[in-house]
Design goal:
Radius of gyration: 23 Å
Low-confidence stretches: 245-250
Helix content: 25-40%
Largest sheet: 6 strands, mixed
Number of domains: 2
Distance between the termini: 46 Å
Shape: elongated
Strand order of the largest sheet: 10-6-7-8-9-11
């Protein structure tokens, strides 16, 4: 296999050396981190299908982030995956990097697996940006799940409450607008359902407001019976419902 792929290996090695910086891991440090290759191949964070590097062959970039001793680094493997298998049958090159520029170089082609999206997809409701893998939606959703109480409504049950989304938008008890650190305008709709069979139920809808048109794109929504979680979304400016212009989907 090595002899068959020798020219491809050299091409990929030349590319890697062209983007590698002097501040990245040394050769010896890379050898010390080789043990992370197996974990990367078994449980990648991302898999990118690259059909552009070689005219006659598709390669796959496996990427995973690790944190060791307080340092975050990324392990990357450029691989060959047979059509009938999902696990690489050959690894052309592999290396760790702490340089985001090197990481971004290998995030190319088609993203065919994203661990973050796999984690959040059960919480997506038809028509929202979360279901499309929108990075802002995914990031905000994951942040919400991290602070969500252990006794709160489980993600596997979110779909059971999806019919409350439109009602929450149309007749919210509270509407809050705030700007995040990246300049995104986020508007949150909150409604309490005191008569619902689920005790202490609230439904929350997160949207993004276009600063030019004031139209809202639906990011994601979720049920909760945790008052402290609801309080986290009572931030910014408290709006009147009539100020909001809605858009059905992202």
């Amino acid at each position: 296999m090595f002899g068959y792929f020798s020219q491809s290996i050299q091409t990929l090695e030349d590319e890697y050396q062209s983007v590698r910086s002097n501040e990245d891991f040394t050769d010896q440090e890379q050898l010390d981190l080789e043990t992370y290759l197996e974990s990367l191949l078994d449980e990648p964070d991302e898999i990118w299908q690259d059909s552009q590097t070689f005219e006659d062959m598709v390669v796959h970039h496996f990427i995973r982030s690790f944190e060791v001793g307080g340092q975050v680094f990324h392990y990357i493997a450029v691989t060959y995956v047979t059509p009938e298998d999902s696990y690489p049958s050959f690894v052309f090159i592999h290396f760790p990097t702490k340089d985001t520029r090197v990481l971004q170089n290998y995030q190319r082609g088609e993203l065919i697996f994203d661990k973050k999206f796999e984690y959040v997809k059960d919480g997506a409701v038809d028509g929202d940006a979360l279901g499309e893998g929108d990075p802002l939606s995914v990031g905000l959703y994951i942040a919400m799940m991290k602070v969500r109480g252990e006794k709160d409504i489980g993600q596997s049950k979110f779909q059971d409450f999806a019919d409350l989304r439109e009602d929450t938008i149309e007749s919210a008890d509270e509407i809050w607008r705030k700007n995040d650190l990246d300049g995104n305008v986020l508007v949150t709709f909150i409604k309490e359902y005191p008569d619902h069979e689920t005790k202490d139920l609230y439904y929350i809808v997160i949207t993004q407001e276009d600063s030019t048109s004031n139209v809202h794109s639906l990011l994601f929504s979720f049920p909760t019976n945790d008052e402290s979680l609801v309080d986290r979304y009572r931030q910014g400016e408290n709006l009147q419902a009539e100020e909001v212009v809605q858009e059905n989907s992202h």
